[in-house]
Amino acid sequence: MREIVNAILYQERTGVQWEYLPHDLPPHSAVYYYFAAWRDDGLTQTIHDLLRCRVREKTGRAEDPSAVAMDSQTVHSAAGIPAATTGLDVGKKSRGRKRGIATDTLGLLIAVVVTAASVHDNAIGIELLDRVVIDNPAVRTAWVDAGFKKQVADHGRALGVAVQTVQREPGAKGFTPIPRRWVVEQTFGTLMRHRRLVRDYEKTTASSQAHVYWAEIDRLTRRLTATTTRWRDQSTAEPALPTLAA
């Protein structure tokens, strides 16, 4: 089982197709079998949630968060993805799928929703709130951007969650970290370092959500073990170019 998990994490980081997993890992058919089985019976999310609780405890926090930040991200879909689960994000003029995530104040993943890119953020926000409240009933506050409209705030109020819209500072130019919301944007950036997530390659949105959880599992295990990812082999790195004499 450890080698099965290693193979899944290898795919998350490298983006390799199932058939091209290295031969020193288990057969790709066995790896995919367990990936799909754990996806369908909820074990993937259970593993993730248990690890997240341990990370929060390690930082001196309670297991369950009391506040979340929510945002969405549009990514291109690969060729062959069913048209029924893809669409056009009119605002970003991008075709593919949309990922909505909720994170705690540490930037740890709380919930994920994957839809066609044509789905409005309101629908994603409502679904995220439902999932957050089911698994984390202690949440009382959610910070969002202006893409989440009044419907999300009304739905949150019915669930006992105060939805607050956090705007950019007036006159801010270029990249500026936005209070409360910067953690969810940082999480998106970190997850995208896993090449399997740079494009949506999955035929089902359930698989897309599972891959987000596995990428987050990779982050959580490294935080628990205080290790870092070497995205480039330092021993084979190109030497620095010599500087020219004045």
Describe the model.
Pfam families: DDE_Tnp_1, DUF4096. This is IS5-like element ISSco3 family transposase. InterPro entries: IS402-like_dom (IPR025161), Transposase_11 (IPR002559). The protein contains seven helices and six strands. With 246 residues, it is α/β, with parallel strands linked by helices. The protein has a domain of 139 residues: Nucleotidyltransferase, domain 5. Strands 1, 2, 3, 4, 5 and 6 form a six-stranded mixed β-sheet that branches. Helix 4 packs parallel to helix 5. The C terminus is likely disordered.
Short synopsis of the structure:
The protein has 246 residues and is an alpha/beta fold. It contains seven helices and six strands; from the N terminus they run H-H-H-E-E-E-E-H-E-H-E-H-H. It has a domain at 64-202: Nucleotidyltransferase, domain 5 (2-Layer Sandwich), CATH 3.30.420.
